Amino acid sequence: MVRDLTSDYPRWALKKNESAGTVFSVLVDPEGRALRCAIVAVVGSYRLAEYVCEQLKRVRFEPATDATGAKRYGKIVGLIKMALPDTEIGRQIIALRQKPDVELTVTSIPDKEERFREVKVQTLVNDNGLIEDCNGSDNSTNGLTAAACKVLEGEKLPIETAGDGSAISYVQEMTVSFSVE
């Protein structure tokens, strides 16, 4: 089923034939409220990208949980496309794909895991920005998930802060892709 989304599209953007592909980062508190939204990258209209972030700040999210099931702050990085397909920039935006967070080159991939060229992992980032825990997002473990987590643990990510400015730990899902050299 195709849904007409023009009712969700801002009138000013429709009038100007504006489209945007917005890579965003949203920090969500343990109750599921968006604390802030940052625009990471934009293709097309920056004003429409700002609109996307404003809308994301109003969303109530499912709280992030760590490996024990405890609610945590969560960081969501994603791509939202608002595109008018009858425009050149709209078609370019429709064709956009979100890049993986990490790309690893390996010498081989075991035959049984050949179909998993990309894995999603859930990371726990401490208040110093270091990844201190990593698991398969769906609690699955396979060789590629284990390899991805081995590379990621101890890596530095941005330090995030709560509303009072204090550094916080947070959960972030990351996509890791593998290519064979």
TrEMBL record:
InterPro entries noted in UniProt: TonB_C
Entries under Pfam families matching the protein: TonB_C
Superkingdom of the source species: Bacteria
GO biological process: transmembrane transport
Domain TonB C-terminal: 8-71
Name under which the protein is recorded: Energy transducer TonB
Native source organism of the sequence: Qipengyuania atrilutea
